[in-house]
Specification:
heterodimer; A: 85 residues; mainly beta; Ubiquitin-like (UB roll); five-stranded mixed beta sheet; 28% strand; B: 458 residues; alpha/beta; Arc Repressor Mutant, subunit A; five-stranded parallel beta sheet; 19 helices; 36% helix; 22% strand
Chain lengths: 85, 458
């Protein structure tokens, strides 16, 4: 299957999570909320929240708890979550 | 919907408890964050076969039978579901697929396991640095092997196991930075008990031997730093007074595991301090019941013991809960008949030795290190507040926002506690933990607003 990470198509396999895709999609890192420095998923088990990401329009999802689905739209978050999302 | 028992977590403890409770005739729902049962230890056990299952080892393959029995036990199962609030009585607030709901239960069993102990060091927030547990999860849930110059830094059974699994799958390790200290007398005095688990001991020795043979092993170093421009590019450490620097693409870190306590902390349960491993555990009676009647804990969430101990404590909690629901039930008799205490003692035999062999890191954290990953609060900021306030992590939280980000102190809690203790010259056990408040997981206003329609707590 393929998913869209920041508009770019990338291959993904059944059984993996959004956070696992983020690790290999170029430029998929999150910008930290205070200094906007790049971050990538750290724990993969739901306790670090470094994988917070917008999935199909829903912001601040824990990417490591969301299994990928064909055509899923994944967008990086930079800085704090916007109120409109 | 009201159940006799809500079990949180579908790992070894939660599944074993659910099976036992169903046998005893209770209505049970098992709620889990993951898409499939097995917990972190048996993640993907229903999917992995062939060389992958082979490389993951016998302990991993053991999980398949329990998962199968769980699937067949008749408990309702809610995967990909997060619990964000628990109220006494008992009411649980959940979110699943963007929809929130509330369910009721006569008893709650927390079997939500453990997390890796966060140990901040310079560069630990860089992309490219993650935990050994994270890498192992990636392996189990898609066969992902780390690429490039892969370094492992840490101590304990998990890094050794992961390294062995990785090498079994033709993965490569550039080096292993062993942070364990020389086994002290404390560890050796615990060895007598460990002999009861000879196989466990041999396994660890074999992992270590395989690792020494295959990769570069670095010992007796300090001041590890990860560096790079926007992502991990190199590691530095001090060894025999000399600064060493190596190229690195991935660094996997691990310093043991600690129970997940946010739920019991939020509910105000009594907790105990584990002096050997520096973590809190909820105070439990012989059946796993907390200081709150009707709230039980089983598995690693009640103290780290490994998967086998978790399955047994799950069964014991299952019996205790049945007795709680029906006073005429002969829980003691069933417990004795199944030989649960004997089996549990044997499953835990190696633990005191491991706890003494791998004490939590004691090195002081450098001032510039980010402790709170969410709010980006440094050790220096925490120290400066801790010095002039009461010895309470919540004072640090109020002054610095440390622990107020989305992880709610899951990453920085114990470090802040240690820094507060350091600033006041008192032992960590005399410093409390952050106050934990709901929601325990992020929830949207829309989800909360829609709750009314979904409620059915008769």
């Amino acid at each position: 299957m393929t998913v869209l990470v920041n508009g770019v198509e990338i291959g993904a396999w059944n059984g993996e999570t959004v956070a696992s895709v983020l690790l290999r999609a170029p430029g998929a890192g999150r910008g930290s909320t205070v200094s906007r420095t790049p971050r990538l998923p750290y724990c993969q088990m739901g306790v670090c929240f470094e994988c917070l990401v917008t999935v199909d329009g829903n912001a601040s999802m824990q990417g490591c708890l969301v299994p990928v689905a064909p055509g899923m739209r994944i967008e990086s978050q930079h800085g704090p979550r916007e109120i409109s999302k | 919907m009201k159940y006799d028992v809500v079990v949180i977590g579908a790992g070894p403890a939660g599944m074993s408890a659910a099976i036992r409770l169903r046998k005893n005739g209770s209505s049970v729902v098992v709620i889990d964050e993951q898409p499939a049962p097995g917990g972190q230890i048996w993640r993907g056990v229903e999917r992995n076969s062939g060389p992958m299952a082979e490389a993951l080892g016998t302990d991993y393959r053991e999980g398949a039978a329990l998962v199968q029995a769980f699937r067949a036990c008749g408990a309702d199962y809610m995967p990909e579901t997060q619990v964000w609030q628990i109220e006494e009585g008992w009411h649980l607030f959940l979110t699943s697929g963007g929809k929130a709901r509330r369910i009721g239960a006569r008893v709650v069993l927390l079997a939500n396991g453990a997390q890796e102990r966060p140990v901040p060091f310079p560069g630990w927030t860089l992309p490219g640095v993650m935990t050994v547990g994270a890498a192992q999860i990636l392996l189990k849930s898609g066969g992902m092997l780390p690429q490039g110059d892969v370094w492992i830094a840490g101590a304990g059974p998990l890094p050794l196991l992961y390294a062995t699994q990785l090498l079994g799958l033709e993965g490569r390790i550039a080096g292993f930075l062993d942070t364990s200290r020389k086994p002290g007398l404390a560890a050796l005095t615990k060895l007598t008990g460990a002999w009861r688990d000879i196989l466990g001991l041999l396994k660890g020795a074999r992992w270590l031997r395989d690792l020494r043979k295959s990769g570069k092993m670095v010992r007796g170093f300090h001041d590890l730093r990860a560096g790079g421009d926007g992502r991990l590019q190199y590691l530095e450490w001090l060894s025999a007074g000399e600064r060493r620097k190596v190229k690195a693409d991935i660094l996997l870190v691990h310093e043991g595991v600690v129970p997940r306590i946010h739920e019991t902390m939020a509910l105000g349960c009594a907790h105990e301090w584990n002096e050997l491993q520096n973590y809190f555990t909820p105070q439990l009676d012989g059946w796993g019941e907390t200081s709150k009647a009707g709230l039980f804990v089983a598995g690693d969430a009640g103290g780290i013991g490994g998967w086998l101990a978790a399955t047994l404590s799950g069964e014991i909690a299952g019996l205790g809960i049945t007795k709680h629901l029906d006073a005429s039930f002969d829980a003691e008799g069933e417990r004795h008949k199944a030989g649960l205490d004997k089996r549990l003692a044997s499953a835990r035999a190696l633990r005191p030795f491991l706890d003494a062999l791998y004490p939590p890191p004691m090195a002081s954290i450098a001032d510039e290190v980010i402790v709170c990953r969410c709010e980006e609060v440094t050790a220096a900021q925490i120290r400066s507040v801790a010095k002039v306030s009461a010895p309470d992590p919540n004072a640090v939280k109020a002054a610095t926002r440390c622990g107020m980000g989305p992880c709610q102190g899951r990453q920085c809690g114990y470090t802040v506690q240690a820094l507060v203790a350091e600033a006041h010259g008192i032992p960590p056990r005399d410093v409390s933990f952050f106050n934990i408040r709901p929601p325990l997981k992020p929830v949207t206003l829309g989800e909360i607003a829609a709750l009314g329609d979904l409620e059915d707590v008769s």
